[in-house]
Amino acid sequence: MKKIASIPTHSFEPISFGDNYLYTQYEKLRSFLQVNFNQKIANFIAKPVINNSEVSWYANYYNDFRPIAEFDQETQGLLLSNYWEILNTINAKIKTLKSKTNNDQNEWYSLLNSVFDSENNKIYSDGQNIVVLWGWKFFNAHENKLPTFIPQQIFSTPTPLVEPLNTEFQPVITDENQNNEPEEFVNETPLIEEPEPLVMEPEPLVEAEEKKSFWARFLEFLKWFASKYWWLLLLLLLIILFLFFFNSCEDKRNDITNKEINDLNNRIEYLRQKTSECCGCETNENVE
User: Fold this and answer.
1) Which residues pair with 47 in a beta bridge?
2) Statement to judge: residues 6 and 144 lie in one domain
3) Domain boundary among 194, 210, 226
4) Are 66 and 165 contained in the same domain?
5) Where in the sequence is the domain holding 269, given as residue range(s)?
6) Are both 94 and 38 inside the same structural domain?
7) Model-level pTM greater than 0.90?
8) What is the pLDDT of residues 72-116, one digit of tens each?
9) How many domains is the chain partitioned into structurally?
10) How many CA atoms lie within 13 A of 66 on its CB side?
């Protein structure tokens, strides 16, 4: 599959379908088109792949595609005529699905009506083949309007656009273990040389997770550690409080001990002075 376009996710609003978004139904939708129509109509829808803030669109063609607005007026008229021919073929099938009793057919009716809405289709082409972007609110009804004047065919050997319509409903049976890799490319454009097959692994249809910074991971680690080893943190807190009070009491004891020693030294010094004074009185009396 080849990338044909990319748009920012914030440029258009995605269409909801049930509890999810419409663009998530690509594999289911493509299987339905293959079973009930042909390969050309199955290739009519592009595959959306979301990566970060961008939607990339892929198609089963090798050629370069661009919006039909970039073609000349005559080519635009032909491409729009082909677009509405395919759309009318699909709409004829959609009308047969509406049922008052069959919920499965009603779900397909709602899905196909949402996808093949000309107001929310953006048409791309390589000048001959047509691919539509879908699943977002493009509000593109004016650009997709069929012109009143349809130009003559500009291709010398036109081929039928679609096969005869099978009006019987054929439900799609999907396998849970189905391989999601894109199908083998079917090239419908005549080429002078057959190019080598383009192998491209589809990117997952999920938004890439942003890489977290060191501090964000560090904070998550602290939250995990606190929730798992809260008792160890409590024990450390008690030990710190005990050491704080022990050191405080020890300092007070040291202050008291130093004060007692100073008082004792003062008393000893006082007694020495008294003793010296008494000894001096006795010596004077003996001399007299």
Assistant:
1) 58
2) yes
3) 210
4) yes
5) 216-288
6) yes
7) no
8) 999 999 999 999 999 999 999 888 888 778 888 888 899 999 999
9) 2
10) 8
Q: What is the DSSP string of 95-154?
A: HHH--SS-HHHHHHHHHHHHHT-GGG-EEEESSS-EEEE-SB----TTTTPPPSSPPPP-
Last residue of a domain, one of 153, 182, 210: 210
Single-letter code of the amino acid located at 201: E
* Tokens, residue 77: 């008229």
**Integer Cα distance of 236 and 31 in angstroms:** 63
